[in-house]
Amino acid sequence: MRGVWWLRVGLMASSAGCGPMGVQGHAEHPRSAGRAVVESFWASRTQGGPAETLLSRYRLPPAGDWPFNSHDFEREDEDDDRTFYSTPRMVHHIDEGARKAWTKHLKGVLAPAAGGEGGTVDVLDLCSSWVSHLPSKGLSGGRQLGRVLGHGMNRVELKKNPALTEIIVQDLNAEPKLAQIPSQSLDAVICTVSVDYLINPQAVMAEVYRVLKPGGKAHFGFSNRFFPTKVIALWRETTDFGRLWMVAAYLGSAGFSVETTQLTTSGKDPYYVASGTKPAEIRADL
């Protein structure tokens, strides 16, 4: 039943809203149902884990329900993102262990939307940079990468990326529409350590849903590193598993069937993935 899903997730959020920076919530703003959920993770002994059973314990809102409000996506630095990202950063934002785990994961999960063995996989690398973490020697099951569209903020970085066949330079926070990409034209969308900077993820997820073929998949991965002045407020006020629930909620609200996992890494950086599958039969109301 819409509107009351969050009352059934065992919340203790009213007294548990102290995040990693000692923030006690935002009493001056209306408190969203999504904030109530993610703040509750601090009250859990495991802080919400394990990842694989997360959504059985912390339920997602129904498709079409958006549990957040605009205050959840405020940032310390609200200046133009194009200025912040204008300088190329040819650096890795997660350690080698996390990078290898993400590449191994993508090798296994990227597949044509129609399913089956073999074939090519057309991919959008959303919020890309100079490296895509895609496997360089093919995918599992004899599959191969086809088109790899790289979307990002810095043209120099994108041009350095050997995996990309096409590039799109665009600020999703200023314009979330992916007008350059036809509807139902891609098999998969990936996003690496960037979902936490989106200030209008509802609109972005709607576009991800639109550009995917029926049965296509979206994979959003992240760790526990971020630019603190540019990350959204709610991201700083919960645990890693609270963040995983947030991204799962983004996908679920857009109409995806959602799974969550934590990858096994060999370094210090953890790595989490929320994956959404677009239904093979499209609902008319989404």
Overview of the molecule:
There is one protein chain. With 286 residues, the protein is α/β, with parallel strands linked by helices. Helices cover 22% and strands 17% of the residues. The chain has helices at 33-40, 54-57, 81-84, 96-109, 155-160, 201-211, 240-254; strands spanning 120-126, 144-152, 166-169, 186-192, 212-222, 257-262, 272-277. Strand 2, helix 5 and strand 3 form a beta-alpha-beta unit. The relative contact order is 0.19.
Fraction of helical residues: 10-25%
What class, by secondary structure content?
A: alpha/beta
- SSE sequence, one letter per element: HHHHEEHEEHEHEE
For the termini, the CA-CA separation is: 17 Å
Number of β-strand runs: 7
Oligomer: single chain
Shape: globular
Strand content: 15-25%
Mean pLDDT: 86
Radius of gyration: 18 Å
Side-by-side strand order of the widest sheet: 3-2-1-4-5-7-6
Q: Biggest sheet, open or closed, and with what strands and sense?
A: 7 strands, mixed
Topology:
Elements lengths: L32 H8 L13 H4 L23 H4 L11 H14 L10 E7 L17 E9 L2 H6 L5 E4 L16 E7 L8 H11 E11 L17 H15 L2 E6 L9 E6 L9
Parallel strand pairs: 1-2, 1-4, 2-3, 4-5
Antiparallel strand pairs: 5-7, 6-7
